[in-house]
Amino acid sequence: MTSRSTWYCHQSIAGSGIAIMDAQIAFELRPDLWASPQDCRMTFRKAQSVAGVKRVNATFAGGGLGTVLVLARSLDNLAKRLEWIVGLSVVNLTLAEPEVEPAPRQDPMRREADAKEDERLAQVHKLAKEVPPSHDCQHRRDILAARAELGLSVV
After folding, report:
1. Which of 79, 124, 131, 143 has a C-alpha 20 to 30 A away from that of 39?
2. pTM of the entire structure?
3. Are the C-beta atoms of 19 and 8 separated by less than 8 Å?
4. Three-state DSSP class for 54?
């Protein structure tokens, strides 16, 4: 499901080539997406992955915004374009550091399955090391099957 922040981001980039990732500015530009400024501040997600954009930190003069993340298709005349949209002059523009991908969370069920598989392989290795009896029996067949599974000599 697409969040309102994602809608805001993609529609802003489609419309103007710029998405200003700040809850206060987002609510001013698109009040139709949120019920109130508080709703926007609580649900706004700055972390958006949009292909083909450059990530820039912009600092505005006054307004109490501080440094704001901006996603832009083009850096051409970006300061002036931001000033037109926000209404405040841009003091500083710097390229933002790329976001670090979070480490994938390991599923507890996957961890349990891996532990069981490790335990099973340890049993197979232990069984493959045994000397098979000379007569045909289930234990001999188990040893030979373990050796075959590990790619060892079956003789």
Report:
1. 79
2. 0.60
3. yes
4. strand
For residue 19, what are the β-bridge partners?
71
DSSP state of 66: -
pLDDT 10s digits, 94-127: 888 876 667 777 788 888 888 999 999 999 999 9
CA nearest to 40, candidates 56, 62, 63, 20: 20
Return the half-sphere exposure (C-beta side, CA atoms, 13 A cut-off) of residue 128.
Answer: 16
E strand or H helix at 53, and its extent? none
**H helix runs in 30-107, sequence order:** 37-43, 78-86
Can you name the residues that pair with 21 across neighbouring β-strands?
A: 69
Q: How far apart are CA 134 and CA 12, in angstroms?
A: 77
Q: Which two tokens stand for residue 143?
A: 């040893």
Question: Could you tell me the strand order of the sheet in which 67-72 lies?
Answer: 18-21, 67-72, 54-60, 90-95
